[in-house]
């Protein structure tokens, strides 16, 4: 198993439940989501990337950008084979504009 990486984000969205959590630290190993917890201050070994992170069962982007935030959430909520959860990241300014032009899997 690879080293666990930690990222700090403004917002974490769960694509299937639409649950939203503010100021979260995400733990990711081997490209898959492990866990998250509230960011309460400086967190050692955590890279602050800000923006919005979205949890999804999709491991690959099989759709074209740009998309509205609503359409992106719809695409990422589609069920996939397997049970691994992946994290997709959108920069804060794009999320606030309502249109996503760039999407990165962490």
Helix content: 10-25%
Which class in CATH terms? Mainly Beta
Distance between the termini: 16 Å
The value of Rg in angstroms is 13 Å
Provide the low-confidence segments as ranges. Answer: none
The major pleated sheet works out as: 7 strands, mixed
Strand content: 35-45%
Q: So how many helices?
A: 2
Output the CATH topology.
Urease, subunit C, domain 1
The CATH level-2 architecture is identified as: Roll
Total beta strands? 9
Please tell me what the overall shape is: globular
Structural class: mainly beta
Mean pLDDT level? 94
Total separate domains: 1
The topology string of helices and strands comes to EEEEEEHEHEE
Compact summary:
By secondary structure, the protein is mainly β. It contains two helices and nine strands.
SSE layout and pairing:
Layout: E1 5-14, E2 20-29, E3 32-38, E4 46-48, E5 52-56, E6 67-68, H1 69-76, E7 86-90, H2 92-97, E8 99-100, E9 104-105
Parallel strand pairs: 1-4, 1-5
Antiparallel strand pairs: 1-2, 2-3, 5-7, 6-8, 7-9
Account of the 3D structure:
By secondary structure, this protein is mostly beta strands. The protein has one domain (5-105): Urease, subunit C, domain 1 (Roll), CATH 2.30.40. The protein has two helices and nine strands; from the N terminus they run ββββββαβαββ. The chain has helices at residues 69-76, 92-97, and strands at 5-14, 20-29, 32-38, 46-48, 52-56, 67-68, 86-90, 99-100, 104-105. The strands form two sheets. Strands 1, 2, 3, 4, 5, 7 and 9 form a seven-stranded mixed sheet that branches. A two-stranded antiparallel sheet has the order 6-8. Strand 1 and strand 2 form a beta hairpin. The longest helix has 8 residues, at 69-76. The radius of gyration is 13 Å and the shape is globular. 21% of the residues are buried. The mean pLDDT is 94.
